[in-house]
Amino acid sequence: MAESKPPTHAEDSVAMASTASAAATTGITEEIVAANPLRDPRDKRLPRVAGPCVLVLFGVTGDLARKKLLPAIYDLANRGLLPPGFSLVGFARREWRDQDFAQLTHDAIKQHARTPYREEVWKQLSEGIFFCPGEFTDDGAFDALAMMLKEIDETRGTGGNYGFYLSVPPKFFPVVVQQLKRTDLAHGPEASWRRVVIEKPFGHDLKSAQELNAITSAVFPESSVFRIDHYLGKETVQNIMALRFANNLFEPIWNRGYVDHVQITMAEDIGIGGRAGYYDGIGAARDVIQNHLLQLLALVAMEDPTSFGADSLRREKEKVLKAVQLPGDLARSTARGRYAAGWQGGQPVVGYTEEEGIPDNSITETYAAIKVEIANRRWAGVPFYLRTGKRLGRRVTEVAVVFQKAPHLPFSKDDTEILGHNALVIRVQPDEGITVRFGSKVPGTAMEVRDVSMDFAYGESFMESSPEAYERLLLDVLIGDPPLFPHQREVELSWKILDPIEEFWASQGPPEDYPAGTWGPASADEMMARDGRVWRRL
Amino acid sequence: MTSFMLSDTTASKISSQLTHLRHQMGSPAVGMVLTLVVVCDESGQYDAVRAATEAAREHPSRILVVIGRDPDEPNRLDAELRIGESTPGEVILLRLYGELTRHADSVVSPLLLTDTPVVAWWPRESPDVPAKDAIGQLALRRIIDARPASDPVKAVAGRARSYVPGDTDLAWTRLTPWRSLLAAAFDQPVGKVKKGVVEAASGNASAPLLAAWLAERLGAPVKVADSEGPGLTGVTLTTAEGTIKITRSDARLATLSRPGQPDRRVALTRRTTAELLAEEMRRLDPDEVYEAAVRRIGRANRSS
């Protein structure tokens, strides 16, 4: 080197931090470098690009496909992250031809894509769009699919790599998976891969989750099954790990010595919409707590993984889920509710039992709050409160770590009368970021201390609009990078936590009504009051 | 948007005016992640500020635009403050007169955000050794652009002598989509590359960098050949099994062909300056891959 400036301290740490993250995020291993001379772990400009492959989408006409999956595929292509030759095959019970599916995709992209529409990107994508009509029970249709994929391999160079995205209700899983087995689509030749992507719900209790898993695992090995929990694809959720493990500021106080309790909330302002058929009998706890909230709990409470590889990360999450314990008296430590007619955000809305398709004698809850404890050295005695609900005041998802009060206040009682607990809040949506709440002196001659908030807006600080969760997760599926997908063991552990509560609730009759647009039933507030705590006002 | 003019002022007056404006708007917290210093002249100012503010949407920044005016005038500093211009962050245009034009760092230095990275960008003319420039010395990353130089190819070649870790060139940034596509093509096994050609419009600054990168990584000679353009138009790599070729004639859609496989079309659009700048600010550590390419060009020039 001819001349080089001695690195400043900042330069040094920036370099170090990004080398570590590059290794974690770009996933460039020595094998890849050996196989591809143009890849280099130091070359951080080059994005992770999936290898040549075909994505087969079952259930293309559903809401999820139109609003999320197809736009996410376009956004990936627009960011140059899809390989040349990438092909998309739609499978559905429609008398369609390729161009009809292409039209549906085009419309979905125009309406819902995050990144601007560009003709050349669409051209690249549309060349690889195919449609295979048929019923799931129709052997002929799947034979045609197998033929079609073989042909795509030849004309588009996709090398026998297929991902199967089952965007269909779970009752169709067995037949689809069996068809994939029968046509030998589930197992590719050497050096190619076959992956299957499934969406929640992963069952409705432990038993059904195991049955569901038996169906997929009979055909696909666990390493080829990707369970999508779209929360885990969100930037802020991944940032929980950065916040906890890349900083030295928070970890020392991240334990029972300093934390009073943790509140994890996912509130929705919408009702059940057109999902009556799915929702009734499932309810808020199965729909949200079992997957999203328990995954958030695992990420917040777990010990530091030895690496961010799938194995280490899942191991830590499993450990903490195993340590979750329910309080003895479920009547006093859980609450459930059901929205009644009321006003939500300035509009009159109907109650749950008046929604179309909901039977009068339904006992399904639309609000659920539970208290759990984690029996390990770090968290013993620190309650974790999880709540979720529909038709609440507004849409917000957050994790609030609430700290204990200062052990001694050298101020008079009057001065600190309205001083609350310090809190660190991870805002997951809609306004992604982190808030720290602490006491500060009110300007003036008196020593009056009051809570103030300090905000870090993640969305604005780094990205104009951060990638949609589905973009990240689809790319991970195509690359074969599993850390952000829950393992079957995590799914089963979560059901083990929830099943006793569901059983107890089933014997308790209809849930308590709460007016739409409020923050849930009175029993939820009473549950907190018994512990001398309150829910955060959101 | 709030715009504020300060005539015949100083850095400390600008600084207190900024604090005052922020408090007035009710958002005293500073959420900016870096300081971007743009060194340009009055004619290039508009485009540079536009690109920088757009990039600031991804990286909220304090943007300091240093505009050198008539050095024969009496010494004077004029400042224009823009806050809340549809982008997070602040834009400060600094117009320097007289002897002050040679001491821009004395104005810039007190206005840098505390304890956050500093990036310097010369959209047009750049100093011979950016790291030795007074502004360049304040910066962790120094972005130049060989393209507007009178002889872009020579400008790229000259970088080998002046390179210091932290230097980077937008002519290199423009190549990322090309390099990404080439790397993706090599994800499937390809035989040993024997030789290659990069085709581009005459005088294209990026072409020699791409050729040098390929040669460096593949261990094979890669030449640059002239074409009609626009910009880069093709890369041809000859292997034992046949030819891998990427061609792009309209600066939008490229065709990838490789032995034994059908041709495939891939979107390969030229990007705006704002996008290039945003990519530069994403990683602030030295770009060793760029360094290797530049040094290779330097070696080739010395030996010829």
Task: Note down, in words, how this protein is organized.
The complex is a heterodimer of chains A (538) and B (304). With 538 residues, chain A is of the alpha/beta class. Chain A has 17 helices and 18 strands. Chain A has helices spanning 9-26, 30-35, 63-78, 98-112, 119-126, 139-156, 173-182, 206-217, 235-245, 276-279, 283-301, 310-322, 330-333, 458-462, 469-479, 488-506, 522-530, and strands at 54-58, 87-92, 129-133, 162-166, 194-199, 225-228, 259-267, 324-325, 334-340, 342-344, 347-349, 367-374, 383-389, 396-403, 423-429, 433-441, 449-457, 512-515. In chain A, the strands form three sheets. In chain A, strands 7, 8, 9, 12, 13, 14, 15, 16, 17 and 18 form a ten-stranded mixed β-sheet that branches. Chain A is globular and about 80 Å long. The model of chain A is unreliable at 1-27 (pLDDT under 50). Chain B is an alpha/beta fold. Chain B folds into two domains: 2-169; 176-267. In chain B, helix 7 (206-218) packs across helix 9 (288-303). The chains are: A alpha/beta (538), B alpha/beta (304). At the A-B interface, helix 1, helix 5, helix 6, strand 17 and helix 14 of A face helix 6, helix 7 and strand 14 of B. Chain A: Its EC number is 1.1.1.49.
Provide a short characterization of the protein structure.
Chain A: InterPro entries: G6P_DH (IPR001282), G6P_DH_AS (IPR019796), G6P_DH_C (IPR022675), G6P_DH_NAD-bd (IPR022674), NAD(P)-bd_dom_sf (IPR036291). Chain A is an alpha/beta fold and 538 residues long.
Low-confidence stretches of chain A: 1-27
**What is the typical, i.e. mean, pLDDT of chain A?**
87
What structural category characterises the helix and strand content of chain B?
Answer: alpha/beta
State the separation between the terminal residues of chain B, measured CA to CA: 55 Å
Strand content range of chain A: 15-25%
Arithmetic mean pLDDT of chain B: 89
CATH class of the largest domain in chain A: Alpha Beta
Helix content of chain A: 25-40%
The order of strands across the largest sheet of chain B is: 1-4-5-3-2-6-7-8
Helix content of chain B: 25-40%
**CATH level-two architecture of the largest domain in chain A:** 2-Layer Sandwich
> What's the helix-strand series of chain B?
EHEHEEEHEEHEHHEHEEEEEHH
User: Which overall shape of chain B is indicated by the principal axes computed on the Cα atoms?
Assistant: elongated
- The tally of strands of chain B reads 14
Global outline of chain A:
globular
For this entry, what is the oligomeric state of its chains?
A: heterodimer
